[in-house]
Fold this protein.
Amino acid sequence: MMKEQLLSGKIALVTGSGRGIGRAIAEHLASLGCSIAIHGRRENGPSEYGEGGTLQDVASELKETYGVNVESFRADLIDPLETTRLIANIEEKLGPLDFAILNAGGDIGAQGGKPSPNDCVGIPPEDVQAVMNNNFLSTVYTCQAVARGMIERRAGGIITISSTAAFVSQEHAAIYSASKAAVVHYTRSLASQLRPYNITVNSIAPGDTRTARYLATRDVPSERLENGTLDRVAQVGEVSRVVEFFVSSLGDFVSGQVLRVDGAGQCWPA
């Protein structure tokens, strides 16, 4: 089978796919013949860092470029009822989901942007709740909504996106790192529960990754961007190719795993 048809006939949801890593994953899966549900909380989310206009624009571009069915959807994943409705809406328009890649999240406080202060002691309670909602609870609610149908069909694959921040101490971005650690442990537990139903559940933990948001919010030394070695920032395609492994036949017997995409480096300070 040609690579272009590797995922022909399959359907995937990629949350937070209007821009950044999520968009790269969605585009890579579309290039392999997979139908895609583009998701975001806000219709104009892709425009925030200059990566596009609207969610619909992203869907239209992928559909035109790769000739697969692509639809855009808006939902706030920290609301379990809204998340359940999202999955029902996707499956009504595209069909039963084969894969769900849970990418939505970030170190985002209650008012947007990074919490300030953002340490272990000083971070405000409302920001603690927002960061846990955006990363951990949104993952739990989406996994629950997706897994119900996959259990009935006794097939499927779920991939959560964690972070290398889950594995190292973070004096700054402490709650974010804790939320991503929670995602890792939940992923492993879910994998055990869904094993009898032939559903794989894995996590990808990227290190610093070159997205428009990353470049806009950090002062990154040029030597960390493109130096031809492992001592650099990851490219979004390097995360997307790991997704391909997990959803292809190569990953059929791989579940409950967490794969770091960081060139064997540590997570650099946020």
